[in-house]
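Service request form, structural biology core

Requester: graduate student, group of Dr. S.
Request type: structure prediction, single chain
Budget code: on file
Notes: please return the result as structure tokens.

Sequence provided:
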Amino acid sequence: MLAHVVAFGTPKLIAKLPRSHITEIQRASETQANESPCRLRPLFMGRAAAVRAATKGKTDARKAKTNAIFGKKIIMAVKQGGSPNPEANSTLKDLIAKAKANSVPMDVSARQL
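Core staff response, request fulfilled:
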């Protein structure tokens, strides 16, 4: 508290002030100390969480786009080949192999069949 009081004036000047002014200066310094940003802010993880969230959002968007493209291609292969059976439809069989290579879940291809 003394450091805050000294900040408002030299110690000699404060000693010459009336008692009421000194208490006002002390109250002002205490409120400034209580309102310091480092004491009022809650603890956060910082930028690391925001960076992870942004990276996850980008990879999720990329995966969703890939899954949607392969889903549409599977629908088109079934319509063109005439059979939802991969053994009977060679285009569909090749497309399912490409989807597996691109880590597309089997759920996506099963929904489209």
